[in-house]
Amino acid sequence: MKIHLLLVIIGTYAAIVLAQTQEGFISLDCGLPIEESPYDNEFNGLTFTSDSTFIQTGKSGRVHKDLNDVLSKQYLTLRYFPEGKRNCYSLDVKPDTKYLIAVSSVYGNYDGLNLDPNFDIYIGPNKWISINLKGRPNGTLDEIIHKSMSNSLDICLVKTGTTSPIISAIEIRPLRDNTYVSQSGSLRLSFRVYLNNSDGFIRYPDDVRDRIWNPFFGSSYSQITTNLNINNSNAYEVPKTALQSAATPRNASGPLVITWNPKPSNAQVYLYMHFAEIQTLEANEIREFDFILKGNFNHSGFSPTKLKVFTLFTEVPMQCDSGDCRLELVRTPKSILPPLINALEAYTVIEFPKLETSPSDVGKGDPCLPKDWSWENLRCSYVDLSTPPQIVSLKNEELEDIKRSNFCIISALNFFWDASSARIVAFSERIVAFSERIVVFCSSNAPIRSSLSCLTKKEEEG
């Protein structure tokens, strides 16, 4: 199964724009000039804002003008990072909340060099994915379902070669906690499809969680559709438009087969299958089938519910034989009709073993992890993967003049992050005496986390 992610303005967008809430959504158009922010995407009404208030590093670029009529607006600008090994976005999120995180990168020959970048993307101190834009003129879009551990989420771009990392858009959507449950780790998207012989993808506002559903249809399938309303009220909230079509095997007595190759080949896989009966059955007609997934997952005697979604999923991760996953929906002997399926999602488990640095020792990006890229002039203690690193001291303590408009405290050690010099420095006792609490002046552009108590000069003196 090959799923092509649609960054380009091609095909039909299968949604009617309606007024819907975007509560909890983060939609960043990276590199967008602040004076052009915010704006509403003309295709689905999503509100995008500039990333300039979420990161203090990098430079803005714009793809080649020939792509202006090809790419969606959020992919026309980008942020690139010619300096530094690691550059991080720090985003405000709710702790212990499950999020769908989508990151897009479109090179678009913004620099006129025709050198496709390659780089890594990290979530906090853990590597998520390697990006290689060679042979990808329309860019990449990668998704992961990840649970936040604190009220701040760091997305970091790491230079791995001679080219500069780039990023076009960051989109973060809250999910229900009782969906996409894994025994451990986060879930990286392999594919998310609805079974339809078309070229129109589905996302917000049809999907209230703004998941992207790409059409998929095999040559051995037959398509059935309906215009009737389908009840999609289960926890997964599959869009109704994705449920109004289904695939059945062209050979009505044979199985419906779906195959794919997870990456890596030995990955642990979670599968989510969404069904609704969209045909009107005669009194003597039965649709019943079994599920077979290479001995990993079996379910017998399933019948879809009339015009109502039912989601069947693997509760424990499975590993496909020889890296080839093969799902078969097999008609039972008493069934009159062939099996069907409306929509399907597959994910692989990705473990993030490194814990973020202790929340009391804060900064822009994790100051201690990855260990090879800990901040200059800083010494951290490392115990094991289950224990967050702690900042223990500076390697070379220096008392510097405080630039009150541009720093934040690391409260555990009475150090602060000076954004102007990109270093951690100690601060003098006269500042501690400024308040009984350990507080410090911070500008709105400083890398602030909510565990700090950051005040303006007026508030402090009052």
TrEMBL record:
Keywords carried by this UniProt record: Membrane, Signal, Transmembrane, Transmembrane helix
Protein name: Malectin-like domain-containing protein
Residue spans crossing the bilayer: none
Membrane topology: Single-pass membrane protein
UniProt lineage: Eukaryota, Viridiplantae, Streptophyta, Embryophyta, Tracheophyta
Source taxon at top rank: Eukaryota
The Malectin-like domain, residue ranges: 28-349
Main subcellular location: membrane
Region forming the signal peptide: 1-19
Subcellular location: Membrane
Gene Ontology cellular component terms for the protein in this record: membrane
